[in-house]
Fold each of these.
Amino acid sequence: MTRSERRLTILLRVVGAANALAIVAVFMPRAWILTCHEMLGMGAFPEAPVAEYLARSTSLFYALLGGVYVFLSLDVRRYARAVTVLAVAAIACGVILLAGDMRAGMPWWWIVGEGPFVVALGVVFLLLQVRARSEARAAEEAGPPEERDDAGPGRNESDVEGTADT
């Protein structure tokens, strides 16, 4: 695994685990939703059933996405295309979230913290993907460690045995 693949794996797991925590909001009592809404400075939570439905289904979506990120982290090379698709989707969603947050009149800290963060995350995923591909190609072109000049002594058993005979 290349250095960029390791970094991508860690990032997918951290973001995935954080997103998966949204599962709590799917099942928490309505009173908790009301309290959280007020603590965020957004006033009273709407009484309409659709508001609670949207809060819970959005949380479920984030938790599901978190699970997908963790799953993809299990083999980033194998799932590289899916990671790339999700990275591009994150960039597009971040832009849409930014516009939607501004249009809805969300607080400044929400506007800054949601859309731009999602865009940045997508960009980082893409950059790590590009670097990982480049590093993997370079490693393939260099050949197996025993065939490279930089393999060093003792890395290959046949090299060690061969030096003992001389």
Amino acid sequence: MKGIVCCKAVLPACFLRPLSYEEAMNIPTLLWVALGGSLGALSRFGLSSMLHRILGKEFPLGTLAVNLLGCFAIGFVYHMLVEQNWGQAQHRHLLLTGFLGAFTTFSTFSLESIHLLQASRYLAAFGYLSLSLIGGLAFVLLGIGLAKLLA
């Protein structure tokens, strides 16, 4: 199967160029993403759990902290790895797609929104922001509703 696979929908780090199917699906690339993803998920769990334990669960401060920290990190790492061309492809796979992708998808959502705004694609940005927020809430409600029907 030949074609173009780009994580642009997942992560704008592919703005450099789309990955071919063979590049995206090779074992080293998958291992870098898996390693980063497992470390990101463990970091998210550890940090949010620690903050919930310290600060309580009345307000989701742990999740908020993870999302804001992830937004800062993806902005910094994206600029250094992609725009300043530091590192190599495996660093992007490990840190952007893997670690930060698992740490928080909110950071990716925020970076993609910024890219749309910087490209003066205001209608697309508004649509993306609106559909993500309203659609996300609606689909959570739909999932809960379906689960209640099936339970």
Amino acid sequence: MQRRDCFGLHDIAKKVYRIAEENMEKAGEKMALPEDAFKFFVLNKTGEMDLYLCEYMDNESFIYAAYLGMLGRKPEPRALEKWMAYKDMPRFKFRKKMIDNIMKSAEFRAKGVIVRNNIYSDDVNRNAIW
């Protein structure tokens, strides 16, 4: 994830993730989020989904980031399984399908999340408030 970061939050989030990952491994556990999704969670503003922060993620990390940013939660196991079946699609096509699907959901509309930098939308207003 590349982004201008004058406060060094990206590096701090990366270090925190690595420390937590080491501690989880020592306890015989696994991190609940991929590293890029964790960094997204740290850098993204609550109540917003800034798709610019997801630009360099792989599709698996994008699934977690989209759910965190747009729905305020991790994907439930069935949804994760559903989206993982599509994760090898071309990146733009996969993300457009996922973002469109989430934005059509009643859960998303009820959250009032602001979607920023939505290059996956056909809508001219890419900083939509839903």
Amino acid sequence: MRTERGSTMPLMIFFAAVVLLLVVLVVDAGTAYLRRQELDALADGAALRGADLAAQGTDAYRHGIGSDDLDLSVASARRAVRAYLTEVGALRDHPGLRMHVRVTADEVVVELSAPVELPLTLPGAPLRPTVRTSAAAVVRPDLVE
């Protein structure tokens, strides 16, 4: 007579492996989500700073503000965003942080991306995935539809 002793062991090993993979997935997803939240806050602050300083051109010093809007300076916006990210320690705290600043007629858009160090890695997953975010600061709300 054949016994069924030990037939549950492979099933338990399989379920333990599935639970372990789920734990790794949840921990890594949580880490990536928190990094994205940090980058969201940095992008918001950088866009506000860039919009604020990009609208303060030399025309205001030469001719005064008057009734017209100031033109946005792309170079001023980029300098302001980089200075903000340096000032708050983002470039130190997020190695590999990359920024892209885009200026349109009515807004300053800041796009940030940074690699994420995941505490656990799934087999076949990228070793350093990248998290991206963007934020915009509207300078002239009357131009927005």
